Amino acid sequence: MRLELIEKFRKREAYIAIVGLGRVGLPTAAVFADASYQVIGVDVRSDVVQAISLTKIRTKEPGLEELLKKVVKLGRLRASTNTPQAVKQCDVVIVCVQTPLDSQRKPDLTYLKSACKGIAQALSKGKLVIIESTVPPRTMRNIVLKILEKESGLKCGEDFWLAYCPERITSGKILQKFATDDRIVGSFDKDSAIVALELLKTVTSGDLSLTDCESAEVAKLAENTFRDVNIAFANELALICEQVGVDVKEAVRLANSHPRVKIHSPGCGVGGPCLTKDPYLLLSSRGCVDVEAEIIEASRKMNDLMPSHTARLVLKAIREAGKDVKNSRITVLGVAYKGETDDTTNSPAERIIDELIRLGARVAVYDPFSEEGFGGNKIPVVWEAVKESDVLVVVTDHQMFSSLDLSKIKKLMKEKPVIVDGRRLINPKDAKRYGFIYYGIGFGI
Ligand code: SAJ
Fold it and tell me: What is the span of the domain harbouring residue 249?
């Protein structure tokens, strides 16, 4: 049975169902279809399913729209809202549904449970189920395995195979990284590991590390939590530098010359769907630990404080210009949570814009990738956006913001113009030379 399925992978004769067509599922479906598999994308949202069927997909992820159009046209990708029906027709099911937090910041596994129930209804011998969604530790054992075995009456490792292969999707570079990234394959039994490995080998040239499900779950959460904690350290360092009159960029450059030190970049906030959530998924399984130290939680708090801190810098700079924030015109450059993407999920821009509007400012917003305005006045041309403005706030590290024509901007803005650089893209010396009042995260004056 195992060899038959592996042979189908080799001949690209396997049918694959991708359950959940969001940020992770849609590119996953496109990649497998492009590798010549027959793919059925499943989503509970009929508008998503219809969009794929009509190839009216609007995504700014480089290459994705073209790839989806190509595979839909070739008849290799179709979409459905019916999970059991899709599972029935497929050899492999890959689950990419969201695992959000509830209002108490606890994991909400409703979508995952419902997907597993739908799969279990149609699970039959010889199928492989892969979970890609990011999950709290022990979810594979306590929830996924239980639902699949109980509701199908089948046994994992004997009748069907099950693996946890957490996604490593990086917005802006999804297709490029999908083909080369190393992946983790967690499983409860050796056969499941082998079958999942053979499938992934057909779409990535990266190394595939085999392990147990629990280690894979913790490793995935550790990756993003590690990054969040490290960014929090950089942010705290930036606040200290502002106090002691040091430029954090210079301090980090010097510290990073030590071979063991690699400090991250401070900034006006940490956004996106992963770093803002995964530390809480990890914490949800902590239970009662007999220590006071709470580095992960403190780091989340630190990073969540940065948008307000940025708004405070704006206030300080406006006062220095002898102006009042009320009725001042502030231009926010960037709403995406990070550079070169249109993704605005949990973007610090939302909180910064909210606070500035609450303080009475008139906020104009420019972002070359995203249509979102977060309540500010969205202006499609950068020169129009900065015109008659009192303050520029750089929120997203889009490449174009690091090479802005400061001389031209100075002429367009009101007198005593201010730059608040939330991503440290603009050289403070250049800004001052052109006559700007310059404030930046971690720029001690
Ligand atoms: N950021 C900083 N300073 C830094 C690095 C990032 O402030 O030094 C900010 C960014 O501006 C952004 C946020 O952090 O607002 C998150 O950006 P990111 O590039 O660190 O991460 P994501 O959320 O786009 O993707 C992460 C990645 N994980 C790691 O790098 C460990 C990606 O590889 C994962 O696939 C993805 O999470 C995921 O889906 O889990």
Answer: 239-445
